[in-house]
Amino acid sequence: MNIVSEGKTKKVEDLGTEVMLHFKDDITAGDGAKHDVLQNKGAICSEITARLMKYLNEKGIYTMYLEYLPPNKIRARKLKMIPLEVIVRFKKAGSFVRRYGGNEGEDLPSPLVEFTYKSDTLHDPLMCVEHLEVLGITTKEIAQSIIQQAKEAGNYLKEFFESHSIELWDMKFEFGLDLDGKVCLGDEISPDTMRLRKSGEIFDKDIYRRDLGNPLEKYEVVLKLCQSIDL
């Protein structure tokens, strides 16, 4: 295998004009300060990602997804990733509450998109569009395209989970540019990257962040819902 990069939860294999993402069983929190290995996590998160990206593709959102290869691999478009976490928020939660106050689960008046710079050492600082231009991360035009696509993808995912009686509070996306320079949704969509709630019950990585038990029990519930999307 020609592994060209490895992050906390995935390895990327170069296939020439495409890549293969290998999802690992690792789970982390606190910029990697907390780290464990949970058997079968990679398989669960890769299948959820594959099904949700297939769903978004069908809704007209351009994603990296090409093919799911069980148990834990996705064949994907090769992207030059933009070093940003793009957070779409429907409710106040997590770092938003720590920064601005309010109550967990309180509605925002409209969907909010935040950019944070991907850097564990800098603790993912917030950035505005002008930061992206001044620091040479991306252009204003690409940033605006990302904002639009992130909101559209977020709304489609919110509708999907609402149809299964689960609230989507927020999610983290990552985008890159394909070989033609087109903005494309990449990385992962799973309970690692979303907040999913139902009547106070948690179905996401906050279980791990808060030491509330084995998160994979709830991840498997999310997977069963996502299996309503054909691959």
UniProtKB/TrEMBL annotation:
Q: In which pathway does it act?
A: Purine metabolism; IMP biosynthesis via de novo pathway; 5-amino-1-(5-phospho-D-ribosyl)imidazole-4-carboxamide from 5-amino-1-(5-phospho-D-ribosyl)imidazole-4-carboxylate: step 1/2
Q: Which gene encodes it?
A: purC
Annotated ranges, domain SAICAR synthetase/ADE2 N-terminal: 4-223
Catalysed reactions listed for this entry: 5-amino-1-(5-phospho-D-ribosyl)imidazole-4-carboxylate + L-aspartate + ATP = (2S)-2-[5-amino-1-(5-phospho-beta-D-ribosyl)imidazole-4-carboxamido]succinate + ADP + phosphate + 2 H(+)
Family assignment?
A: Belongs to the SAICAR synthetase family.
The cross-references to Pfam families, in alphabetical order and at most eight, read: SAICAR_synt
The alphabetical list of record keywords is:
ATP-binding, Ligase, Nucleotide-binding, Purine biosynthesis
UniProt keyword tRNA-binding, yes or no: no
**Alphabetical GO biological process terms:** 'de novo' IMP biosynthetic process; cobalamin biosynthetic process
Give the EC number(s) under which this enzyme is classified. 6.3.2.6
Name the chain's protein: Phosphoribosylaminoimidazole-succinocarboxamide synthase
Task: Determine if Ligase is one of this entry's keywords.
Answer: yes
Q: Which organism is it from?
A: Fervidobacterium nodosum (strain ATCC 35602 / DSM 5306 / Rt17-B1)
Q: Looking at its record, which EC class is this enzyme?
A: ligase
A single GO molecular-function term is: ATP binding
